[in-house]
Amino acid sequence: MSMLRAKDLSKIGYTNDQARSLVINIASRHFKHHSKDELIALLTDIKAHPKNYVNDEVTGKIAAKFLDIEEGCPFKVFSLLSQPGPLKIVGGKEIEFSAKKQMEGAMTLPITVRGALMPDAHTGYGLPIGAVLATDNAVIPFGVGVDIGCRMALSILEESDRFLGRYSHQIKEALREYTHFGMEGSLEFHQEHEVLDSPVFQSTELLRKIQGKAARQLGSSGSGNHFVEFGEIELFENNSFGLPSKKYLALLSHSGSRGLGATIAQYYTKIAMDTCKLPSEVQQLAWLDLDSEAGREYWLSMNLAGDYAKACHDRIHLNLLRALGLETLATVENHHNFAWKDRLADGREVVIHRKGATPSHEGELGIIPGSMTTAAYLVKGKGVDQTLYSASHGAGRAMSRKRAKENMTVSALKKMLSDAGVTLIGGSVEENPLAYKDIERVMDAQDELVEVQGRFLPKIVRMNKE
Q: Using one digit for the tens of pLDDT, what is the confidence trace for 266-296?
């Protein structure tokens, strides 16, 4: 081998002194019989395509320098399983092929135990929306999603559905004054909740930095399909509350953990993808081992984001009901973007990721919404182990926001709202009812998973105006 010098490496982009020293050392020991030109060609290719070399005992050390992995935080390279793990698909006729294909990739992860796909499923980032994935002692940040703790909250109120007609003006004014939607901004009056005093905010530098933003955004909602709405709910016989079977006034909200959850998700997703190397088609499903420092930090942060999302709903409901002088008879709430430690029927301990799925253990209550003009359902879980104790989280999108905008006019949306007797404050054509699957068909597909206890119809809806 002709003598390889630092200036030769500088010409092909090896500018870091430590990297150049490492390369020269490795080259002199392992590539003695290569010419300088051959060696430079190899090093050029390693720099351009480091992922192709990370599995090699020798070249992997060089490739690591171009994968931006810090010393003391080594990456690991994982191969996919030759045979995917067991997957249960519910209502497969309602699910697009691309979502099924995406889920098949998740089933080949070496940490995967079992999976399920709900009838509202559609393609997402990493995992499909509507996916449930059980893993072994590992959490996938993108398996939870960017909006950590996105959830539903329902207040059944001590008023009949006739309240909507008598006080519709007051309800609209309260929704305008006591809710806020969008990526930025906050309510114009101070919000308090015990979650802001959680010592977890002091447990990491990241959480300390974003505590102030969390305080400002408390009680507000995100954009997209997030909403706060008043409507009527009909409770059926033998409901879990022991309430008479009739129609009640109800308040329903859907949103998540705002900037707090998004920042946590982005931060730990990068760590996962930097330290857990997978084939490109599943790289977004990089995970954190729960025994690692980053895994423990994410788990702590994720649970804080979940508590914060609940706090936002607490404030939304408290502010609105206090302003309207309304009392609550019963409440139901559930996350549908989260990860839980759980135990399967065979006794195995797993981490269950629900990315757009409603927990439905035996007797567990949840809410499955449709669209701004269609029903939402109050359900009780039947605890089906095969679907990882889960049900759909909604109707599921039938078309992208871009396509929905292209296929719906503002005037056509107004007519749909009028025909359904719904008043919309804010909102946009991207969230029009035709952008979603038929909630009735989705519910029919999962009647073995949940028992329906009530049916909610939206009447006055507040959403972000995009």
A: 999 999 999 999 998 999 999 999 999 999 9
d(CA 455, CA 163): 18
| Residues whose CB falls within 8 Å of the CB of residue 134, separated by 6 or more in sequence, listed in order | 112, 113, 114, 115, 342, 344, 350, 351, 352, 353, 388
Are 231 and 154 contacting, i.e. CB atoms less than 8 angstroms apart? Answer: no
Q: How many residues does the chain have?
A: 466
d(CA 274, CA 286): 9
* Residues 463, 398: Cα–Cα separation, whole Å: 19
Question: Where would I find the H helices in 64-154?
Answer: 97-106, 141-144
On whether the CB atoms of residues 264 and 218 are closer than 8 A, the answer is no
Longest dimension (CA), the chain: 91
Per the rule left: phi > 0, alpha: psi between -120 and 50, beta: everything else, 347 is: left
Nearest residue to 19 (alpha-carbon basis) of 51, 53, 64: 64
Q: Is the pTM of this model over 0.70?
A: yes
Kindly report, residue by residue over 190-218, the tens digit of the pLDDT: 999 999 999 999 999 999 999 999 999 99
Q: What is the DSSP track for 163-232?
A: HHHHTHHHHHHHHHHH--BSSS---SS----GGGG-GGGGSSHHHHHHHHHHHHHTT-B-STT-EEEEEE
Token pair for residue 97?
């092929």
Angle between helices 205-217 and 293-324 (to 10 degrees): 10
Of residues 138, 107, 140, the one with CA closest to residue 269: 140
Q: What is the DSSP string of 350-401?
A: EEEEEESEEE--TT-EEEE---TTS-EEEEEE---GGGTSEEESSS-BSS-H
CA angle (129, 454, 152) in 5-degree steps: 40
Domains recognised in the chain with CATH numbers: 6-67 (no CATH), 148-258+288-339+357-463 (3.90.1860.10)
By CB neighbour count within 10 A (0-12 exposed, 13-18 middle, 19+ buried), where does 196 fall? Answer: middle
